[in-house]
Design goal:
Translation Initiation Factor IF3; 15 strands; Immunoglobulin-like; single chain; 2 domains
Length: 264
């Protein structure tokens, strides 16, 4: 049994149909809360995990566009961070803008994508992080017109591990990551009501040709199903592995279940 560690992403745009970079500027940043010093304390220390990744997009024609030379940001995926992200984090034109709070800025880590699209963060504390970069390029149709945009995802690191992440999903201000899956510790004393029980699945139907089921796919499916309900978050997420299932039509699968909640 695999228990939820983390914040999960929903409502990303698949990037084989590349998005056009946004041009309109949103309203000024308006944060409703402040970061919790206790929550941020573990993210500002020196950790033992390593995160490696690659940032790229694939065009409809099959060309691979790398994020070479672009910045990569690594932020603790807290409720405060996700509120900032919903307002500014998916806007390529305002990629570097941050809240004025010093805790947010102290916890942020940055690096640069190399010529092959790769990046690396070392000595990262365990926990869930929001990773962003930019992959964009000029089109030949209109001078100065860009395709691509901000690519982002979340990743949960366990102490001492090396984890790989691929950033190949465009997110936009119109469809940012809006649903979070939180542990009960992250929920804390905040009051909520359970709207529904939700689930998501990663299914392998043909053992010889289909890829193996992954927890990441099951979690994404879970969050997308929750997002359709118009809820604020998901909690109590548990993921389980299974073998042959005639009812699910899978030779093997991973299924994640949780509670979709609304804040009171």
């Amino acid at each position: 049994m695999l228990r939820d560690w983390a914040i999960i992403v929903a409502n990303v745009v698949t990037v084989t149909a590349c998005a056009t970079a946004p041009t309109a500027r949103p309203v000024n940043l308006n944060m409703t809360g402040r970061p919790d010093p206790a929550e941020y304390a573990r993210f500002t220390s020196r950790g033992t995990s390593t995160l490696v990744g690659q940032a790229f997009l694939t065009t409809r024609g099959g060309d691979v566009k790398l994020g070479a030379g672009r910045p990569v940001t690594l932020d603790p995926a807290t409720a405060y961070t996700m509120e900032w992200y919903k307002q500014l984090g998916a806007d390529q034109n305002r990629f570097d803008e941050t809240p004025s709070d010093s805790l947010f800025r102290k916890a942020r880590r940055t690096t640069t994508v190399d010529a092959q699209g790769h990046f690396r963060f070392a000595t990262v504390p365990a926990g869930t992080w929001l990773v962003r970069s930019i992959v964009s390029w000029e089109t030949g149709a209109t001078y100065g017109a860009l395709q691509g945009g901000v690519v982002a995802d979340t990743v949960t690191l366990v102490a001492g591990e090396q984890r790989e992440i691929i950033l190949n999903h465009v997110v936009t201000p119109a469809a940012p990551m809006t649903i979070v899956a939180l542990t009960r510790e992250q929920v804390g004393d905040r009051k909520f009501t359970i709207a529904a029980k939700v689930s998501g699945i990663s299914c392998r139907r043909a053992a010889l040709t289909d890829p193996a089921p992954t927890e990441a796919v099951a979690r994404t499916d879970l969050v997308e199903n929750a997002a359709r309900l118009g809820v604020d978050a998901v909690t109590d997420v548990i993921c389980e592995k299974g073998g042959l299932s005639l009812t699910k039509n899978c030779t093997s699968f991973i299924e994640c279940k949780g509670s979709a909640i609304r804040w009171l």
